[in-house]
Write a structure and sequence with these properties.
heterodimer, A: 439 residues, alpha/beta, Fumarate Reductase Iron-sulfur Protein, Chain B, domain 2, Rossmann fold, 3 domains, four-stranded parallel β-sheet, globular, B: 221 residues, mainly alpha, 9 helices, 0% strand, binds iron/sulfur cluster
C-alpha cells in the first residue's frame, strides 16, 4: 500500500455492498434532510477555507468538489433529472467502483472540520455532507481498517486503546501516589469505580496510556475544588470514533455504555475531559443517536473549571504561568460544539501572557488531525502537510505553549512541532489551571 | 395582449413555485427532532447567519474573492429585478398600453434607463461567470451540463429583461424567455434560489441551538 492509497477491507460481495450504500443514502437523507445537498452551486470559491486545499491546491481538494462527489450520487437517485438524464446533471451511479473511489475523498481528503461550510457562499454544511458520505461508506463496509480497529476496540473493550481494567486501576494508583508527593497531601487521589459520587469523569485513554499529566492535573483541580468524583474502570473513554467512521450504530453503543455506566455509579453529572470530537459526540450527537434525552447533564471540564474559578472554589495565580500561551480551537468543540469562551476566560485568568491565534474561534483552522486522520496512517503525509496552516498560525504568535482542549489535536500539534520545528510545548488547559493553583 | 405568452409565463412560474415547494417538503426528510439540551438560541442563529455571517469579515469566500463575489452579487440583483419585472408584466397588463418608445414622464424615463443599465451590467456579469466556468480548470472539473446551461439561461433571461426595458423586445418574447428559465428552475442547480435560504436557515438554526452562533468574534482579533 502506498501513501494516500485507501486501506480498506474489500467487501466480499461488492454488489451487495453497493445496494446497502444506496439504502443508507435513502435512510440518511430521510433522517437528516437534503437541503445542503441541493444548495451547493459549484462556485469554486471555497478552496482557501480548507486547510487541505491551502496546502495542496489541486481541484480534488476543493471542498465543493469533495462534496459534489457525494452529491452526484444523491442526484442520481433523488432528483428528477438525475433519474432520467443523469449525464446532464453530473449524477453518478453508486457502484462498488464509485464507492471505492469515494473512500479516499471522504476519509482521506476531509477532516469534517466544517470550516468551509460557515464560509460557503451559499451556506452549505459541507462537513455534514462529508459525514453523510462516511455513513454511506460505513454501511457498505468500507471504513478504513485502522479507523475501524479503533471503533472495534471501543466496542469490545470499552476504550479505544484496549486498556484493561487492571491497567487503568494501577495507572490511577501510581498517578495518585505521584500527585500526593507533588502536592504534599495524602488525600489527593484518582477514585475509581466509587459509587454515589457527584461526578463521573471521562478521559481520553491516551491520558492513561501516554500522557498522564492531564489526568493528574484534573485530579489536582478536583481535589482543590473539593469535588466529589470518580472514574469508571470500564467505560471511561471520552472519545467516540463512531463519529469519524460514520457508523451511527457503533457511535450510539459507545455513547450508551458511558451514559449507563455513569448512572450505574449513581452520579449526578458526567464531565468530559478536554476532547473536541468527544464533546460533540456526547453533548450533541449522542442523544440523537440514542433517540432520547439524557437523564443527567453532560458538561465539558472547561465549563466546570471556569465555574470553580469564578465561584472561588479554586484560587489561581496567573503569575505561575509566565510563558506566552496561545490557544488552538478544536473544530468539534468550537464550531460544531459551541464552546469557545470558557477556555479563553480560563486562560486569561491562569496565564500571564495569553495571545490569540488568527483566525480563531468558529473561524479556526483545523490542525489537520481531525476526522480520525490520526488513526489512518495511509494519509499521514497529507495530514502533516495540511497542518502547515496551523503551524504558521502558531509561529505567528511567538507563543512558547500551545494550549488545546483536545488530546487528538494535541497529538497532531506535537507532530507539527517536530516536523515544522516550532519549539513549542503542547498542554491541556487543565494542566495550566493546575500549574496556577494556589492551595 | 400577448395573452398566450402571458399564460405560458404564468404557468411556468406556478410550476416553478409548486415544484420547489414539493422539493422542499421532500428534502426535509422526516424532520429532525433534536434530543440534545439546547445551549443557545436557534432564531438568533438564523438571524446571524443571514446578516453578520454574510459580511466579508465573517465569510472568506467574499473576503478572498471580492471581485468574483461582486460579480455574482450584481448578477443576482439583476435576476431579482427581472423576476419582479416579469411578475409586474403579468399582473398589470395596462402598462402595455404605453406607446413605444414614449417616455412622457422624466422620472419614469430615469427609472427605465436605470433598470436597463442594472440589467445590462447583470447580463455582462452572467456572461463573465459563464466564461469563467468554461475557462477555469477547477470549475470545469466540478461542472456538468447543468452548470453551463443554468448560467446561459440566466444570461438569456437577463438580456431579455434588458431588451424589454429598452422596448427592443415586446413583452411577448420576454414572457417566453422568462418561461424557459422558470420551467428549468426546479430541475437543476437553479433550485438554489430556494435552497440557499433553507440551507442557510437550517445551518444557522443548528449552530444557534448549540451556541456557536451568533459567533463571539470576528475573524480578526
Ligand atoms: S461549497 Fe459553497 S463555496 Fe464551495 S463550491 Fe459549493 S456553493 Fe461554492
Ligand atoms: S470540512 Fe474541513 S477538511 Fe473538509 S472540506 Fe471542509 S474545510 Fe476541508
Amino acid at each position: 500500500m502506498t501513501e494516500n492509497e485507501p486501506n480498506i477491507e474489500k467487501p466480499v460481495d461488492p454488489e451487495e455492498s453497493a445496494v446497502k450504500a444506496r439504502e443508507k443514502l435513502r435512510e440518511v437523507i430521510n433522517a437528516l434532510g437534503s437541503y445542503h445537498m441541493h444548495s451547493c452551486v459549484r462556485c469554486g470559491l471555497c478552496g482557501e477555507t480548507c486547510h487541505i486545499y491551502l496546502t495542496d491546491p489541486v481541484p480534488e481538494n476543493l471542498p465543493g468538489v469533495k462534496a459534489s462527489k457525494i452529491i452526484s450520487h444523491f442526484r442520481r437517485y433523488h432528483t428528477f433529472l438525475g433519474r432520467v438524464a443523469p449525464i446532464l446533471v453530473g449524477a453518478r451511479n453508486l457502484t462498488p467502483e464509485a464507492l471505492d473511489e469515494l473512500v479516499e475523498v471522504v476519509y482521506g481528503r476531509c477532516t469534517m472540520c466544517g470550516r468551509c461550510g460557515i464560509n460557503c457562499s451559499v451556506g452549505a454544511d459541507i462537513g455534514s455532507i462529508m459525514r453523510m458520505g462516511r455513513m454511506i461508506l460505513a454501511a457498505s463496509g468500507r471504513v478504513p481498517k485502522n479507523l475501524q480497529a479503533v471503533v472495534d476496540n471501543q466496542l469490545n473493550t470499552g476504550n479505544q486503546m484496549a486498556i484493561t481494567q487492571e491497567e487503568l486501576k494501577s495507572t490511577a494508583e501510581w498517578i495518585s501516589e505521584d500527585l500526593q508527593h507533588e502536592m504534599g497531601n495524602k488525600e489527593v487521589r484518582i477514585p475509581v469505580d466509587e459509587h454515589g459520587k457527584r461526578v463521573v469523569y471521562l478521559v481520553n485513554p491516551r491520558e492513561v496510556k501516554f500522557f498522564p499529566l492531564s489526568l493528574s492535573a484534573a485530579a489536582g483541580v478536583f481535589y482543590a475544588a473539593g469535588e466529589s468524583w470518580t472514574m469508571s474502570s470500564r467505560f471511561y473513554d471520552v472519545t467516540n470514533y463512531g463519529l469519524f467512521s460514520g457508523d451511527n450504530v457503533a457511535a450510539e453503543e459507545i455513547t450508551r455504555q458511558a451514559i449507563e455506566e455513569t448512572l450505574r455509579l449513581g452520579a449526578e453529572e458526567m464531565i468530559l475531559s478536554e476532547c473536541g470530537h468527544g464533546f460533540r459526540a456526547f453533548r450533541w450527537e449522542g442523544p440523537n443517536w440514542m433517540h432520547k434525552k439524557y437523564s443527567i447533564p453532560v458538561r465539558s471540564m472547561l465549563d466546570v473549571m471556569l465555574e470553580y474559578i469564578e465561584s472561588g472554589r479554586i484560587k489561581v495565580d496567573r503569575a505561575k504561568n509566565k510563558d506566552r500561551v496561545t490557544l488552538h480551537d478544536p473544530c468539534n468543540l468550537v464550531r460544531y460544539g459551541g464552546v469557545s469562551e470558557p477556555q479563553r476566560k480560563i486562560l486569561h485568568k491562569v496565564c500571564g501572557d495569553f495571545v490569540e491565534m488568527v483566525p480563531n474561534r468558529e473561524q479556526n483552522f483545523c490542525c489537520g488531525g481531525g476526522g480520525g486522520m490520526l488513526s489512518m496512517s495511509e494519509y499521514g503525509e497529507r495530514r502533516v502537510l495540511s497542518g502547515k496552516v496551523k503551524a504558521d498560525q502558531i509561529h505567528a504568535t511567538s507563543a512558547k505553549i500551545v494550549a488545546t482542549p483536545c488530546h487528538n489535536c494535541a497529538d497532531q500539534l506535537l507532530e507539527l512541532n517536530k516536523h515544522y520545528k516550532l519549539g513549542i510545548e503542547v498542554m491541556a488547559v487543565v494542566e495550566l489551571v493546575y500549574n496556577a493553583l494556589v492551595l | 395582449m400577448f395573452l398566450t405568452e402571458r399564460i405560458i409565463a404564468s404557468v411556468s412560474i406556478i410550476w416553478a413555485i409548486s415544484a420547489l415547494i414539493y422539493q422542499w417538503i421532500k428534502a426535509r426528510g422526516k424532520g429532525r427532532i433534536d434530543y440534545s439540551v439546547q445551549a443557545g438560541n436557534p432564531i438568533r442563529g438564523i438571524i446571524y447567519n443571514f446578516t453578520w455571517a454574510m459580511l466579508p469579515s465573517h465569510k472568506e469566500t467574499i473576503s478572498r474573492h471580492p471581485v468574483w463575489f461582486s460579480i455574482g452579487l450584481l448578477m443576482h440583483i439583476g435576476i431579482f429585478i427581472a423576476i419582479v419585472q416579469v411578475i409586474i408584466d403579468i399582473l398589470i397588463p395596462k402598462q402595455y398600453m404605453v406607446p413605444i418608445p414614449l417616455f412622457p414622464n422624466p422620472i419614469h424615463d430615469v427609472i427605465i434607463t436605470g433598470l436597463f443599465f442594472i440589467l445590462a451590467i447583470a447580463s455582462l456579469c452572467a456572461a463573465v461567470l459563464f466564461l469563467k466556468r468554461v475557462f477555469s480548470k477547477t470549475l470545469r472539473y466540478m461542472s456538468s451540463f447543468d452548470d453551463y446551461f443554468s448560467i446561459l439561461l440566466v444570461l438569456d433571461f437577463l438580456l431579455a429583461a434588458s431588451f424589454r426595458e429598452l422596448r427592443i423586445f415586446q413583452w411577448g418574447p420576454f414572457f417566453i424567455h422568462s418561461a424557459i428559465l422558470f420551467f428549468y428552475l426546479p430541475l437543476g442547480k437553479l433550485r438554489h434560489a430556494l435552497f440557499f435560504f433553507i440551507a442557510r436557515a437550517e445551518y444557522g438554526s443548528r449552530l444557534g441551538y448549540r451556541g456557536t452562533y451568533p459567533a463571539k468574534s470576528g475573524v480578526k482579533e
